[in-house]
Amino acid sequence: MSAFTTFRRPAVRLLPLALLGLLATSCSDDSDSDPDAPDTITFTQSALYPEGVQYDASNNRFLVGSQTRGTVGQVKDDGTYSAFAEDAQLVSTIGLNVDDARSRVLVAISDPGYNTARTTAATKGKLAAVAIFNLTNGQRIDYVNLSSLRPDAAGHFANDIAVDGQGNVYVTDSFAPIIYKIDAQGTATVFLENNQLAAPAGAFGLNGIVYHPDGYLLVAKSDEGALFKVPISTPASFTKVTTSVNLKGADGLLLRDNTTLLAVANAQSTVYRLTTTDGWASTTSSGTFTTPAVYPTTLARRGSDAYVLYSHLNALQMNQQPPVSEFTIQEVDF
Q: What pLDDT does 33 receive?
């Protein structure tokens, strides 16, 4: 059994009624929706190096991926880690999306070359796929090879996933200027392809992606530190979101509400809270959350709270020895 460490909020102390009234009027929008939830969850799995994280409210667990293993793991509040889904076609599990409405987990599959048991010359830097699992029992429902849609591209890396209200799935490719679509029947197509979304060879381009209920996608481009707004009905009319915020290394995104977006900048060790007053034509920063030098990657919503994953992927990329064993899911508090 894995060792674990977890830190919980201190016990609530009784306060005078006058002070309680004062606190009630001064609480921020980031107040905890679940007072029993831990601020910090630390779990131990040597050399796991997870990149994606999601919260499964129906089963009270976080789900995490792994760049070094073809697995999806589950993490309880006490830090206990166990396997949720394993499959021979999984090489590295990157972005995750828990689709509660359809009781499924969508997993972006790539091959950055760190899973020595499964990486091959044919797939290293060239794989983009999505595996779909039953949210309750972890059984595989489907596997969709996206890189086969553009077999002649220089490289592929399926990174992050968004789902719209009709169950259509959108997937970013960090090594090709492409956003894929998988419709509700499981048919995959190229949703958007444009050289403006390309990145230099070896660099990560398109990364985090979220669906906005007003009918468009918000997409992060890591190398440029940019956000793009992509209409679902006319993706070719996408626009760059105007901002003065330095989003270099932009990774995972989380839409808190229609006008508030959280964005992780991994190399900056920062989570930005971005707001808009013009439907994401432009955005400004309304707060930052700074992490240690742990290469934060993606975010998970838990009620009205947000948690960020400390991936330590920088240690993996530098081949740090011994490998990192402890990983953290940390509540974001602005």
A: 62
